[in-house]
Design a protein that fits this description.
15 helices; single chain; seven-stranded mixed β-sheet; two-stranded antiparallel sheet; alpha/beta
Amino acid sequence: MIQDLTDIFSALTAFQVVVLAIAALLWLLRFVYLLLFPLRVLLAKNSRGDKTSETPLSIMVTVRNEEDNVREKLPKLLALEGVDYEVVAVDDFSQDSTLSVLGLLKQRYEKLKISSLSQETRHSEKLSQNIALKSASKEWILVFSVSAQNVSQEWLEGMAKLMKDNTSVKVAYVTVANQKNWFNKLYRVENFFQQIKSASYILNGAAFVYNEENVAFKKSEYFKRGGFGGKVQEPFANLELVLNDIIRKNNTELAFNAETVMEKQVAIGRADFRNLLRKSIRIEKYLSKWKRFLLSTDAITELLYPVFTGMALLFAFQLWPVVLALIVLKLLVFMVIIKILQNRLNERKLFITSLVFSFIMPYYKLIFRWHFNRISRNHKWKNKG
């Protein structure tokens, strides 16, 4: 067998050797990435509240035209016991009865604080968040979505307990409820991969988040950095921009377990899926150069690996058993990792879609990113004109 392989390699042309060498390097980089990044999330010790200290929380929620969710879901949060917490709600100039419903709830629950924006304002969500942060009486802020449908005592306790004294940020998983909608499934898969990527980068010392919800952080860190500052005009991202200035590997806890998952009940369409992609592009723009370099290297190798693997099979077909064995090995490791993580995070019925998605989406996202950046540059140029 070894002699046969030696004979095959000795008969290869220079072009075939180059193709095989690049394919082998890309395979190695992608395989090492699996072991050092997603696998590390799988093996990481998650903060579950054992042997920890509990911290008081200000649960921050900003709402706009959310009358039904405020009436149906907020009381479930306000009824929880056993943790020292308050709920700070800011109405973002709702046109329905959201503010009135909040007022009625305030009469029933002393732990609820409410504020509001009195007029239509640009970048109002950031202004609402800033008002909520100023109104909060606790040092720790937990960003909450009023559409969350799985609020429980275990979730609240899990988010309130910290394992380390030097923690400044605690990151948990957030998703949307499964619906019989193709864009809902695409959204959930992209959301899953985004959050696994950010968690793996946190563990590897290149910390950042793609999502502000179900994240707890120290209020003093927000004001120490002057709040949103010059980032207030960013149209897609909100608190993620400040969190990514605060977050570091040594001051961040991960809570990627079933007890702390936040599941939102929201309708997802094509625009929501595209906005999820746009938001991730804009968040990456504000990261440090070396984090952007790591993300770019990750994206480029992900794009090139299937191309050169296919070329290796095509131009050096006599080595197909070796090439195929390496492909299968990497695929099996990838499948095991994402399957276990999806089960852990209650992201079921996504497995097959995730596999197909992982092969197709890098190319779609490349085109999407190019188109979105081109439109953004043209829009900026027109505004300057």
